[in-house]
């Protein structure tokens, strides 16, 4: 399997509860390497641009407000099959469906406030990484 990079976001519900380290430990224990990371505060407009693919969904406004409600940690994870591996470590979008031991099973509060985001495909990973990071900031 190829070495990939994927965009990960530790969301405001998790940063608020001081869970960044515990979540990062799960990524690293799964063999993912954090090759870029920064803690930032998004505006609702910046969150809206990031999630514009969901603009027609009924939860879009709520999602943008939530993502701007506190700091997020944006990061790039690298490893073999990193996109699928990260999705495995995160667990299902709705924590009620997430497998035991996954980030969302352990930490997520609801389908909206679900602690982490991860890219879903190589094309979206490239776009999402470029939204937050320049090439110079990725140090493998
Ligand atoms: P994420 O992986 O960041 O991608 C889109 C996000 O929309 C998703 O995680 C959830 O946080 C959010 N989301 C999906 N479905 C719902 C929903 N029914 N209600 C509120 N938020 C949702």
Structural class: alpha+beta
Mean pLDDT score? 98
The gross shape turns out to be globular
Task: Give, in spatial order, the strands making up the sheet with the most strands.
Answer: 2-3-1-4
Give the tally of β-strands.
4
Q: Please, how many helices?
A: 7
Radius of gyration: 14 Å
- What are the distinct ligands in this entry? adenosine-3',5'-cyclic-monophosphate
Portion of residues within helices: 25-40%
Assess the beta-strand content as a share of residues: 15-25%
H/E element sequence: EHHEHHEHHEH
Quick overview:
The chain has 140 residues and is of the alpha+beta class. It contains seven helices and four strands, in the order βααβααβααβα. The radius of gyration is 14 Å and the shape is globular.
Could you explain the architecture of this structure?
This protein is of the alpha+beta class. Helices cover 39% and strands 20% of the residues. The protein has a four-stranded antiparallel sheet with strand order 2-3-1-4. α3 packs across α4.
Q: What descriptive keywords fit this protein?
A:
140 residues; alpha+beta; single chain
Write the layout of secondary structure elements.
Blueprint: E1 3-10, H1 12-16, H2 20-29, E2 33-40, H3 44-50, H4 60-67, E3 72-80, H5 82-90, H6 103-107, E4 116-118, H7 122-132
Antiparallel strand pairs: 1-3, 1-4, 2-3
The chain binds adenosine-3',5'-cyclic-monophosphate.
């Amino acid at each position: 399997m190829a070495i990939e990079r994927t965009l990960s976001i530790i969301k405001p519900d998790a940063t608020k509860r001081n869970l960044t380290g515990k979540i990062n430990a799960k990524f690293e224990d799964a063999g993912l390497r954090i090759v870029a990371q920064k803690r930032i505060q998004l505006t609702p407009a910046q969150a809206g641009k990031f999630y514009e693919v969901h603009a027609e969904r009924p939860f879009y406004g709520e999602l943008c407000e939530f993502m701007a409600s506190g700091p997020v940690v944006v990061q790039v994870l690298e490893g073999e099959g990193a996109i699928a591996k990260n999705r495995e470590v995160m667990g299902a979008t709705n924590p009620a469906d997430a497998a035991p031991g996954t980030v969302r099973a352990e930490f997520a509060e609801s389908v909206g406030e679900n602690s982490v985001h991860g890219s879903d495909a190589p094309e979206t990973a490239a776009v999402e990484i470029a939204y937050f990071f320049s090439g110079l900031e990725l140090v493998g």
